[in-house]
Amino acid sequence: MKTLIVYAHPEPKSLNGSLKDLAVSTLRGAGHDVLVSDLYAMNWKAVVDAADYGPHASNPLQVARDSGRAFDAGELSVDVRAEQEKLLWADTIIFQFPLWWYTMPAILKGWVDRVFTFHFAYGVGEHSDTKYGERFGEGTLAGRRALVSVTVGGPESHYAARGINGPIDDLLFPIHHGILYYPGIEVLPPFVLHGTDRMTDSDFPDVAKAWEHRLLTLESTEPIAFRQQNFGDYEIPSLHLKQGLEPVGRTGFGLHVRG
User: Fold this and answer.
1) How many C-beta atoms lie closer than 10 Å to residue 25's C-beta?
2) Which three-class secondary structure string do you get for the chain?
3) Among candidates 42, 148, 46, 147, which has minimal Cα distance to 99?
4) Which residues, 6+ apart, have CB-to-CB distance to 219 below 8 Å?
5) Confidence check: pLDDT of 130 > 90
6) Tens of pLDDT along 7-57?
7) Residues in a beta bridge with 85
8) How far apart are CA 230 and CA 139, in angstroms?
9) How far is residue 213's CA from residue 12's CA, in Å, rounded to a whole number?
10) Which candidate, 122, 130, 123, places its Cα nearest to that of 180?
11) Is the peptide bond before 190 cis (omega within 30 degrees of 0)?
């Protein structure tokens, strides 16, 4: 298995740093190939700008069109092309980050904004009366799996169905479904650590044991059963879920998960 770890935390000695290091040693110890994109150590540029697209940047800048033209010509900025090549190399992608303000750190969102360009992660495939592009189960990155490993400061009860912050699965839905599943990546159930603001060194052995188990069972773990866009569950072109397919009483994001 070839694994890319995209890591976003500014402190190498943080819990996130320890989880990243443990992932590297565990997977390599099991015979897997591992690459790490340590975004803070790389001084990753988080903002999209004309420099990403070189001679293909228009004035005024049109991010989707210009990024697609630069991608097609093989002339995206060197750092963006390197990350795209890592994604194409990988079988599995692990995203390691803390939940900050209910989402990923800005540097990681900037990695997505710059790396998931037009014609690479979106804007691919046939658009017709029966198909709406290759996305949500199809796409350039189909055949790969992703695991979000996230640390959360608050207790688990705050992120339950009736918790004040909302269910953790709902908070992660834009990442799982909107970023990862969109270009075809199968998404594994997340590894979530709650209450990390109060975690002590004595808690880490249990955390490490649970994390090692998840890492060593990546290949056998069933992905989240998101519905595929072009395989009959949705009306086209409205992309509304067809009536009667939803389990009784299910609403919201859960409509887009089978079973």
Assistant:
1) 13
2) CEEEEEECCCCCCCHHHHHHHHHHHHHHHCCCEEEEEECCCCCCCCCCCHHHCHHHCCCCCCHHHHHHHHHHCCCCCHHHHHHHHHHHHCCEEEEEEECECCECCHHHHHHHHHHCCECCCECCCCECCCCECCCCCCCCCCCCEEEEEEECCCCHHHHCCCCCCCCHHHHHHHHHHHHHHCCCCEECCCEEECCHHHCCHHHHHHHHHHHHHHHHCHHHCCCCCECCHHHHHECCCCCCECCCCCCCCCCHHHHHECC
3) 148
4) 1
5) no
6) 999 999 999 999 999 999 999 999 999 999 999 999 999 999 999 999 999
7) none
8) 11
9) 23
10) 122
11) no
Give the span between the Cα atoms of 188 and 94, in whole angstroms: 10
Which residues sit opposite 245 in a β-bridge? none
Q: What are the φ and ψ backbone dihedral angles of 209, each rounded to 5 degrees?
A: -65, -45
Q: How crowded is the C-beta side of 139, counted as CA atoms within 13 Å?
A: 28
Say which residue the tokens 């389990």 belong to.
247
Q: What is the pLDDT of residues 132-189, one digit of tens each?
A: 999 999 999 999 999 999 999 999 999 999 999 999 999 999 999 999 999 999 999 9
What count of residues does the chain have? 259
pLDDT at 129: 83
Q: Give the phi and the psi of residue 4 in degrees, each rounded to 5.
A: -105, 125
